[in-house]
Amino acid sequence: MDKVRWFFSMFSEMFPPSATFTEKDVPDVAGKVFLVTGGSSGVGLELCRILYHRGGRNPSQRSQRFSEGVIGVLKLDLNDLTTIKPAAQELLAKVNRLDIAWYNAGVMTPPVGSKTAQGYELQWGTNVVAHFLLNRFLSPLQLKTAQSAPKGSVRTIWVSSSAHHFGPGPYGINFDDINYEHADKKPRPFTTYSQSKVGDILCAYEYANLVSDKGILSLSLNPGNLKSNITRNSGFIARQVIGRMFLYPPRQGGLTELYSGFAPEPAENKGFTYVIPWGRIGTPNKDVKIGLEQYDTGKKLWAILEKETDKYM
After folding, report:
1. Cα distances (angstroms) measured from residue 209 to each of 156, 217, 248, 258
2. Which terminus of the chain faces fewer neighbouring Cβ atoms within 10 Å, N or C?
3. How far apart are CA 62 and CA 175, in angstroms?
4. Looking at residue 62, what is its pLDDT?
5. What's the CA gap between 62 and 74, in Å, rounded?
6. pTM for the structure as a whole
7. pLDDT, tens digit, for every residue of 11-36?
8. Alpha-carbon distance 159 to 105, whole Å?
9. What is the pLDDT of residues 148-204, one digit of tens each?
10. Is 212 known to be catalytic?
11. Choosing from 103, 171, 193, 274, which is the catalytic residue?
């Protein structure tokens, strides 16, 4: 029965119904401030386009005022934790609120052995550790924003993937060797990518436990199976054959992220919310959920990441 349920869950996420929440459903965003990591391409770019046309404001080092919004760029290298603090300080010096943060940037299936500047497996360091550190800097401003913002409007969104279904057992994270430093044989890049996407869910879940009663909604999501730059390291056959059959335009993923940021349904949930394409409330993989609810895997990972990032605060 569990396998049947898993199959139908995956099928629903691979072939989702049409989006019911689109640009026209976004409320007035005048004067609000949003952060989108990875906003220069793929899903992030599509999301930024929508926010711009709705009048969103995203100030930064180089900003230009347009009739519809303000777009800016922060110099931030998620492969190098030493760049996080300067970028966060730059942002905090320019804005007095932060309504929604989308931790959208990521890397997928790089060459085996790829590492960040600090020696993390590249996908784990970029997709999880760097965003966790960035959130440590931005969380106080979001907490301040939530004090005067409409209930349920301040949100932190950790972008995961359907790949989280394939994280290592038993609960999606190899806690004995997260960075696979001591493995006799290096795992396939897709395995470590899947683990990083579980990590995003765990961060979102534990952050919800910490801040949901303080006015911040913490969500994670599967944006959908998309044709975007994140698949550039996949093989030619995977990109051409599988891509044509099962992948969707990046804009569809932008709608999933848009729903996560603005739809009313997540605000009706108490605590953590997981969103699936193209904007529906779903649930994470069964084993990942068991780990969170019965074995405190979110709390465990949070403690590990806090200890590892203290030196970069």
Report:
1. 13, 10, 33, 23
2. N
3. 41
4. 41
5. 8
6. 0.91
7. 788 889 999 999 999 998 888 999 99
8. 8
9. 999 999 999 999 999 999 999 899 999 999 999 988 888 889 999 999 999 999 999
10. no
11. 193
Alpha-carbon distance 34 to 57, whole Å? 6
| Cβ atoms of 263 and 25 closer than 8 Å | yes
Domain boundaries, the chain: 27-312
Instruction: Name the active-site residue from 197, 205, 207, 218.
Output: 197
- As beta bridge partners, residue 64 has 71
How far is the C-alpha of 219 from the C-alpha of 176, rounded, in Å?
A: 26
Distances (CA, A) of 58 to 33, 66, 158, 215, 302: 5, 12, 18, 21, 28
Task: Check residue 47 and report its DSSP letter.
Answer: H
Q: Is-catalytic flag, 193?
A: yes
Active-site entry in 9, 60, 114, 160: 160
* 27-312, CATH topology level: Rossmann fold (3.40.50)
Query: Helices 189-211 and 297-309 meet at what angle, rounded to 10?
Result: 100
State yes or no: is 160 an active-site residue.
yes
Q: Give mean pLDDT, residues 109-131.
A: 96
* Helix and strand counts by DSSP (H, E) for the chain: 12, 8
Contacts of 285 by beta carbon, 8 Å cutoff, 6+ apart: 6, 164, 165, 167, 172, 198
| Maximal CA-CA distance, the chain | 57
Cβ 169 vs Cβ 241: under 8 Å? no
- What per-residue confidence (pLDDT) applies to 235? 53
Q: What does the pLDDT look like over 41-80, one tens digit per residue?
A: 999 999 999 999 887 554 443 444 434 677 888 989 999 9
